Amino acid sequence: MRRFFNKLALFLAISFLLSILIQLALFGAIRKISVGDFGVLNAISRGDVNAEMLICGSSRAYVQYDPEILEGISGLSCYNIGINGSGMEVQLAVLKWYLDKNTAPRVLLQNIDVFGGEKSSSIYQPYRYLPYLGNRELYRGLSRIDKKLWIHRFLPISNLAYFNEDFQKGFMKDVFADIANKPDYLYKGYSSRPRSGIDRINEEMVLKDHAAGFHYRISPEIQACLADFVSLCREHEIRPVFVIAPEYIGFMNMQNNRSDMVSFYRTFSEANGIDLIDYSESEICLSRDYFYNFTHLNAEGSRVFSKDLADKLVRKIECEAR
Amino acid sequence: MNWDLFSLEFLFFFALLFLAYYGIGRRFQWQLLLLTSLTFYAVNNRWEYSFVLASIIGLAFFLTIQIGSATSVSIRRLLLVISIVINVSILLFFKYLHLFQEPLISNNTPLFTAGAIAMPLGLSYMIFKVISYAVDVYRKRIRAEARLGVFALYLSFFLEVSSGPIDRAKALLPQVSSLKSFSYDRAISGLRLILWGLFKKFAIANNLALYVNPVFESPQSYNGITLIVATYFLAFQLYADFSGYTDMVRGAAQLLGYELPQNFATPYLSKSISEFWTRWHITLSTWLRDYLFLPLSNALSRRIKAESLSFVQSDVAIYSSSAIVTFLIAGVWHGSAWTFVVWGLLHGLFLAFSSMTRKPRKLLRRTLINKLGAKKLLPVIQTVICFHLVAFSWIFFRASSIDDSLYIIENVFSLPSDLSTVIQDVANPFENRNLGYTKYLFAISTLLVILFCVAELMNKGREIPKILDHERSVIRWSAYLILFFSLLIFGEFGSKSFIYVQF
After folding, report:
1. CB neighbours of A262 closer than 8 A, spacing ≥ 6?
2. Average pLDDT over residues B184-211
3. Are A4 and B182 in contact, with CB atoms under 8 Å apart?
4. Is 90 exceeded by the pLDDT of residue B115?
5. Is the dihedral of CA A132, A27, A10, B3 positive or negative?
6. Cβ under 8 Å to B: A residues 190-249
7. Which residue from A4, A7, A160 is facing B485, i.e. has the nearest CB?
8. pLDDT beneath 70: ranges in chain A
9. What ipTM describes this predicted complex?
10. Considering A314, B7, B20, B445, which has the largest number of Cβ atoms within 10 A of its Cβ?
11. Rounded to an integer, what distance in angstroms lies between the CA atom of residue A92 and that of residue A240?
12. What is the enclosing helix (H) or strand (E) of A110?
């Protein structure tokens, strides 16, 4: 039996060493990527961003806030660190990581998801953060959501199973784009989606599947995140601006208590001296041509929205200056 | 609480069991396994079902002892009938009770809708074991086991209880009684089987499931080409899932010193449906053959005289009708849905057709070989035809309803006109459905299926992990590591349940 255990131990030891080597090679390659999502995370990690205006949020930040338009109109250098599929807790963890490595922005545009008030039960596409878990702020923030994250930080072999097909696909796409010197598909973290308007079949499907509509709430965890966010901005002398971005009218009509949610954020903003720009009544929401699904603007919608948002910000700043 | 076989928690538990098993001394090994099996059963079922298990074990033990000791043939037969009737009734009660709870069916699948009583884990497999054991004792092929504990372990062995293999008492009971000492070669062979089984389940079957499941859940949403791909993928998903499970179970059993029967032997390389059933789910098909098909055929042959059927040879009629009845029962055993009935009927009809056309097919075969020189090509054609018949039948096996099955069959050839749509529909028909499926995943799944096919082709009938037996250690270790890392990198670990557990 000793021979058996020796062989088994040898196999595990070789696997462990191999997994460390594979991980070192992978992380090394990832850290060299300068395009795409990994390019953005690397820029944050290296402290290369240092924008005057920073955009935070989920996929709505990622695909809707065009830094080129915003910086063109506002005159402030702008960067988008919106992360696809992220909840408020992940956004806050990434923001803390950003502030740990970069100089604080003057203005922080925080996209608010009216429907994002629930506590995150898991981290979407967690592999994205693995190469950067050495950063205390990021690790602490993320491990509040995923209690098993320590395994992935300290046991490389477990990461191989974590690097699923999304990772493999994204990693290869970015690595090849980098090697081939292809133009970055993101502009300062912003991902433009040049897709046509909302598909009627999809719309009917969603309406049918959720005939009773949606009812939202804001969990204590998200309220704690908001409070943390405010104190973080105060600590770094950042001017935060909350933005409730446009959603398609058909979807807003399905939200049974949308007005309660909006008024919560309004009250919270007023109480903490934060500007809130609400697009719930905007004409953008009325046109299906501006969206590629219920909650995401396409490239054209994003252009119109970013321009309008930049104008509003400039007006606000000018007003205050006067 | 639930222990999925081969979840991380289970593997951890199994490692502890392994240490305890060889640590406590050989005299207590089967007692430890019995305790483990009963605990496994209890935590994976509602607690009340422990009484069901106890009743089945107690009754089967008592009746078979009586069968074994009775001297009168008529009493022995009566006791056997009682044993079979009771056990079949228990199975019917749990499996088909919904029939009496809900109004009978429209044309849409569920023969019965889900009822309030859930099926105890592994009940079907256990009942199969009880019946074969009782029949074997009645036929005096084995002696009735006199130790209740040993018999209880035979029925409830935790590695077999959820999805088999359906081990015969003649093979398993002596193993339960014998004292096990650790064997290095057997343990290594067991680990190899587990690794290969994990790879088949998590890297192949689970990746294919990501494509197959959405398509079979709502086939009306997809084009013909997608339906074709999903049907092919389904064939490999079922095979990789179930044979992967069996490999893992057999490997784990080998670690504990047990040798469980092989359940699959490259079934998709069969040249006929009858051959397919000697290579697919072998323990079930041989059970059906020995305890259903042969007794039925014998009974029919006693009643049908050779000259009584003018239109067809009596042996063909007996074979065909027995095959149809056997597979109809096999279909109903798989589940309470019309789709399973049709699946079973199809296999019965395939066998009946092959029996009825044996002579003309033999003639055709001879003509093809002699006149067209197709000696080498013929087996390939036979294999391809057989595979497609089986894959066709899987449509009914997997679809949610007869309507869905018919929709798939009617629409498999409705191909889109332009090539780009074909490519899109093949590689990722879910692009607009937010399922997270990618063309990359499709490429990986296809590649794994191709590699799997190559491995099967190269090792006709042999178990793939055994190929490594005579290789140099460098090659063996490289193979282990490649398989292990491929499993980790390409494995889809979202679902840990096995398809056949539901039956």
Report:
1. A114, A244, A278, A280
2. 93
3. yes
4. no
5. positive
6. 199, 202
7. A160
8. 162-166, 169, 321-322
9. 0.80
10. B445
11. 13
12. strand A107-111
